[in-house]
Design brief:
Layout (H helix, E strand, L loop, with lengths): L17 H28 L17 H31 L4
Helix pairs in contact: 1-2
Length: 97
């Protein structure tokens, strides 16, 4: 294949970054899935109406908002861990300079 395409036969435009898109999908899709699993596991045990910040009064948010915020927080944390793993794996493959 020439420089304009990749191994799947998809043509690339000059500004495309297939490595970045592929890395983002390696990070975001599994972390999205695991954030959903984590939210399900956590809220199977914890009632959202009982949550409070550091002993203060319980949060005055609807259950759906708590589920959504929790999902986004878990997704962010798991994405950060996945990104660090991918970064370290890529560093291991490249020879030291």
């Amino acid at each position: 294949m020439d420089e304009a395409g990749d191994e799947a036969g998809i043509e690339r435009r000059p500004g495309d970054r297939p490595g970045l898109v592929r890395s983002a999908m390696f990070i975001l899709w599994p972390s999205f899935f695991m954030a959903g699993v984590t939210v399900a596991l956590v809220f199977a045990v914890v009632d959202p109406s009982d949550l409070s910040w550091f002993g203060a009064a319980p949060m005055a948010l609807p259950r759906a908002a708590i589920y959504t915020l929790s999902f986004l927080i878990f997704w962010l944390l798991i994405s950060a861990a996945s990104a660090m793993s991918l970064y370290l794996a890529q560093q291991q493959k490249s020879p030291p300079q």
